[in-house]
Amino acid sequence: MHCFFHLVHTHERILDETGIEVSDLEAAHYYALKAIQELRQEGDEETDWDGWQLQVTDASGRILLEIPLDTAQH
């Protein structure tokens, strides 16, 4: 299945227009956590992720997963 990983805040959206092909929802969850880890490594220590979420959607836009960035475990 093709999934997209969007960064979402109350009034902001950073859309993933490419997405990736994953085998199942478990794989999508794995890649979402990996993306969050990479975002944290790229950002500085003062980056405030409060209120941000990573939304994983399918090709039709249906939300499959929502992971808050301020509390995500990786």
UniProtKB/TrEMBL annotation:
Residues 3-69 form the DUF6894 domain. InterPro entries: DUF6894. This is DUF6894 domain-containing protein.
